[in-house]
């Protein structure tokens, strides 16, 4: 069986099963919305890896709830590896951006216009779909490439992933009052069996 190639898209219009080249992306690249000069792709990867390790160790609560001690640990590890001094408050916002990224990609996978490649988590859709969805949700800019960290995001934020176990209440009693429990908001709703993101949560 030939492996699905994300660089080409199936054209149902020609009716003969031929493949046609995927058109050039017309929307911005997602990295424009994810990274800055301070928080680079490398910082993002290290922080995500730290959260992934905590999820695999059962240190996160089900549904992507990050206990204070887990956030503190991920922050310390990221700072050590990247030689930075990010605070738990700053990284709490990073967690929310990662959560949005998870919700958006999950939403896109549910859209009937989208064809996904499970091998490398790339997704393709018509150009007008990308133009429409990225106007509302900039983080949906997956027209250029997919999300190579989807497995990690699913392990961290997935509502029923077996690797994420409910934990007891936090015993962390540090003085950093910025460290607080991060609850998972319900950003996605299901209407008539279709996952949707309310416009007021974008």
Biggest sheet, spatial arrangement of strands: 1-2
Write down the Rg.
19 Å
Compute the average pLDDT: 71
Helix content: 25-40%
Give the strand content. 5-15%
State the end-to-end distance: 40 Å
Summing up helix and strand content along with how strands pair, one would put the structural category as mainly alpha
Question: How many H/I helices?
Answer: 6
Total count of strands:
6
Catalogue the unreliable spans. 1-23, 161-189
Please trace the helix and strand order, writing H or E for each element: EEHHHHEEHHEE
Number of domains: 1
For this entry, give a set of tags.
202 residues; mainly alpha; two-stranded antiparallel ribbon; two-stranded antiparallel sheet; 6 helices; 6 strands; 38% helix; 9% strand; globular; disordered N terminus; LIMYB; Myb/SANT-like domain-containing protein
In words, what does this structure look like?
There is one protein chain. The chain is mainly alpha-helical and 202 residues long. It has one domain. Helices cover 38% and strands 9% of the residues. It has helices at residues 31-34, 41-56, 68-82, 88-110, 127-136, 150-157; strands spanning 8-10, 19-21, 115-117, 122-124, 189-191, 194-196. The strands form three sheets. A two-stranded antiparallel ribbon has the order 1-2. Strand 1 and strand 2 (19-21) form a beta hairpin. The radius of gyration is 19 Å and the shape is globular. This is Myb/SANT-like domain-containing protein. InterPro entries: LIMYB, Myb/SANT-like_dom.
């Amino acid at each position: 069986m030939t492996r699905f190639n994300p660089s080409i898209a199936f054209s149902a219009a020609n009716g003969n099963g031929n493949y046609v080249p995927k058109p050039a992306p017309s929307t911005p690249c997602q990295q424009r919305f994810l990274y800055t000069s301070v928080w680079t792709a490398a910082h993002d990867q290290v922080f995500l890896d730290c959260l992934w390790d905590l999820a695999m160790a059962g240190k996160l609560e089900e549904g992507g709830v990050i206990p204070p001690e887990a956030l503190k640990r991920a922050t310390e590890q990221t700072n050590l590896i990247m030689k930075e001094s990010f605070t738990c408050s700053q990284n709490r916002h990073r967690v929310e951006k990662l959560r949005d990224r998870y919700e958006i990609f999950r939403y896109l996978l549910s859209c009937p216009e989208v064809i996904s490649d499970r091998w490398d988590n790339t997704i393709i859709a018509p150009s007008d779909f990308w133009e429409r969805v990225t106007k509302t949700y900039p983080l949906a800019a997956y027209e250029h490439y997919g999300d190579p960290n989807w497995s990690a995001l699913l392990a961290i934020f997935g509502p029923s992933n077996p690797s994420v176990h409910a934990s007891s209440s936090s015993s962390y009693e540090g003085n950093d009052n910025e460290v607080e429990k991060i609850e998972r908001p319900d950003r996605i709703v299901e209407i008539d069996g279709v996952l949707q993101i309310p416009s007021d949560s974008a």
